[in-house]
Design a protein that fits this description.
Strand content: 15-25%
Structural class: alpha+beta
CATH class of the largest domain: Alpha Beta
CATH topology of the largest domain: D-amino Acid Aminotransferase, Chain A, domain 1
Helix content: 25-40%
Largest sheet: 7 strands, antiparallel
Length: about 675
């Protein structure tokens, strides 16, 4: 009982201090004290996993990436807002409101956060689901990623039977700058603005990636609620703040449209000093009964508008267009500009995104163009001043060969990006090494991002095949910062061990576009060796179940590159296994076309072991329950997924039933 009491006490303590820090910006303890409580809770929960609950602070980041995002139908439509761009339009809005209700009106003025709109649903005080706005009627289930946002309470300070709120997910300017510093350091394309970064982060299939982006949220509306009612929107915001939410910052109420206009001007004057991006102000009727009288169209409410601030623009000239190769091999055209001061900084370069963007804007070298800072951060070219064209401008074309390594450049149908196909391209090497050594690839323990970076900086490796020749450079490894005799020997032993891996790990480790873990396993089951796969035709690969044309083409293109051939030859000489040990003569596909969702703690299997068994029998696993789910394998302390399976009438399988389904099969 003592451990149960301490776990409960720690959860309450951590939730309280998270509320003070994230919702109220008034921390009462420093980070080291919070971390100590958190580590204590982790330790106790590891001793008593049966006491782990979905709303525990330790359960914010899910362990397993999703395969897709399930669709969610919103119970209450998530409408957009009518935009107004002048004070005259806002005065017209006020006139129509007063004519519509025939009485004085109080308005709420809120900052329009430039992010991604989501809904959060709570039942009996517990967070059970979150979804993107989508088209307003149907969005995507991004619950796992929303759970990583620490300003979203997993359990409310006061339970309600049902509560659905709407908020705006965003990335602060400070965190956005850090993210782009990391992108630049690893040779990746920079995010254009915080909104794009937030949207991309929220749609990561792996919640661990989303958790690293430090997303945040402001809650700005109650969509539906049971057990409580309000007369005014501002009363609802105040109540939400007390529940533990971080609500719209510094919202104001006015019953005079002239004061509303002044507030909008004041916000505009100070928005560059804010730590989050806004692109306007939202003006709403405060009285909820008046909102019902005013009503809505099929798309927007009649009781609210968004006042949009104009973006700051400057004119300059494009002197040249250069190519940046990111860590994933994507080529990004960069405009080299006549230096110009914009929003407080000198701008000399601006992203042109891709060739579709260049063609759409009809941008040429030598053009006079207008630029602005997207989200007030990243410079972008918005249009050409065609009146200043002289005829001497030069049309830009994307190169056929990578400017860094000389490998072929490909652009797949339906995609805007051009990509380098070189496996040893210096621009991609860092990320290639990390992926190659990762757990699901060659599983080289001790070779994480920091070690990979040092090996490259010290010139000890230039590509993945060089890893298998590091034993000849042991002395240099021992002398590296942070390395010692034991850690070097462990690293070399792990590299040596990885030589014996089945070829599915090697194929996945190559990081071939469109070829994930499952596809790599299928290839190893259908070909006796890597050489057989390399010699296979497009048609032969395309005959493999679940393989599409893009996947087959990607493989053929990859193995045709000279860099790939050289790398594979070096791996062979180093003794890396090139033969499949997984090819099956007889296949048991008892789970063919069946989708399993695993939830709770299993006693006889790890989740990875259960997943491998399911896949061996032709089945698939998913991270979330949907109408496409066939079975939910439920262990101890199964949470919201189990309830959703009950609601959708999906067959629930316990561990004993699963054992009966698989017989004597083990991994």
């Amino acid at each position: 009982m003592e451990i149960e009491k301490r776990i409960k006490s720690l959860r309450e303590l951590l939730n309280y201090h998270s509320y003070k820090y994230y919702a109220q910006d008034s921390p009462e303890i420093d980070d080291s004290e919070y971390d100590a409580f958190y580590r204590e809770l982790e330790k106790l929960e590891s001793k008593r996993p049966d006491l782990i609950t979905p709303d525990s602070p330790t359960q914010r980041v899910g362990e397993k990436p999703l395969e897709w995002f399930d669709k969610v139908t919103h119970a209450i439509q998530m409408q957009s807002l009518t935009d107004v761009f002048s004070e005259g339009e806002l005065l017209d809005f006020d006139r129509k409101i007063r004519e519509g209700v025939g009485t004085d009106v109080e308005y709420v003025v809120e900052k329009k956060i430039d992010g991604l709109s989501v809904s959060l649903i709570y039942k009996d005080g517990a967070f059970i689901r979150g979804a993107t706005r989508g088209d307003g009627f149907i969005g995507e289930d991004v619950t796992q990623n929303l759970r990583t946002i620490r300003s979203i309470p997993l359990r409310l300070r006061s339970a309600l039977p049902l509560l659905e709120v709407r908020g705006e997910v965003y990335i602060s300017k400070k965190n956005f700058a850090k993210i782009n510093e990391g992108q630049k350091a690893t040779g990746q394309p920079l995010f254009a603005n915080p909104r794009n970064a937030a949207a991309g982060s929220l749609r990561q299939l792996d919640p661990k990636v989303a958790s690293l982006r430090n997303l945040d949220i402001f809650i700005f509306n109650i969509q539906r609620i049971e057990g409580k009612s309000f007369e005014r929107h501002s009363d609802g915001l105040k109540y939400l703040s007390g529940l533990g939410f971080r609500v719209s910052p510094d919202y104001k109420t006015y019953n005079d449209i002239k004061k509303v206009l002044k507030e909008i001007r004041d916000i505009d004057k100070t928005r560059e000093d804010m730590d989050f991006e806004i692109d306007g102000a939202v003006i709403k009727v405060n009285n909820l009964n008046l909102r019902n009288i005013l009503g809505s169209t099929s798309r927007v409410p009649k009781w609210a508008v968004a006042y949009k601030y104009p973006a700051k623009e400057k004119e300059t000239v494009i002197h040249n267009i250069e190519i940046n190769v990111g860590r994933t091999g994507v080529l990004t055209p960069i405009a080299v500009l006549e230096p110009v001061t914009l929003a407080g900084s000198v701008v000399q370069r601006a992203s042109l995104h891709n060739m579709d963007y260049i063609h759409e804007k009809d941008i040429k070298i030598g053009d006079t163009i207008y630029i602005r800072k997207a989200g007030e951060i990243i410079p972008e070219v918005i249009k050409v001043n065609f009146k200043k064209r002289t005829g001497d401008e030069i049309r830009f074309e994307m190169p056929n060969k990578c400017p860094i390594c000389g490998s072929d450049i490909v652009r797949e149908g339906g995609e805007a990006a051009h990509r380098c196909t070189g496996i040893e391209c210096p621009a991609k090497t860092y990320q290639n090494i990390i992926h190659f050594a990762s757990r699901n690839a060659m599983n080289i323990e001790g070779l994480g991002p920091a070690t990979a970076k040092m090996l490259l900086e010290e010139g000890l490796i230039k590509g993945i095949s060089d890893l298998y020749y590091l034993s000849h450079k042991r002395d240099a490894l021992v002398n590296m910062e942070g390395m010692g005799e034991k850690s070097v020997d462990n690293l070399l032993a792990s590299i040596e061990k990885s030589k014996n891996n089945n070829i599915d790990r090697l194929i996945f480790g190559f990081g071939i576009r469109h070829i994930g873990l499952r596809a790599s396993r299928l290839l190893s089951k259908n070909f006796d060796s890597l050489d057989d796969l390399i010699e296979a035709s497009l048609e032969e690969i395309g005959e493999i179940p679940e393989f599409g044309e893009k996947m087959a083409e990607s493989l053929v293109i990859f193995f045709a590159q000279e860099q790939t051939k050289s790398t594979i030859e070096n791996l062979k000489l180093a003794g890396v296994n090139m033969v499949s040990t997984a090819k099956e003569i007889k296949t048991d596909e008892r789970f063919k076309d069946k989708v399993f969702v695993l939830t709770g703690a299993l006693e006889g299997f790890t989740r990875d072991e259960a997943t491998k068994i399911i896949e061996k029998f032709g089945g698939k696993t998913s991270g979330s329950v949907s109408k496409r789910t066939n079975y939910v394998l439920a262990g101890n302390n199964a949470g919201g997924k189990l309830q959703k399976a009950v609601d959708l009438k999906i067959e629930i399988v316990d561990e004993e039933m699963f054992r009966n389904m698989i017989g004597t099969e083990t991994v």
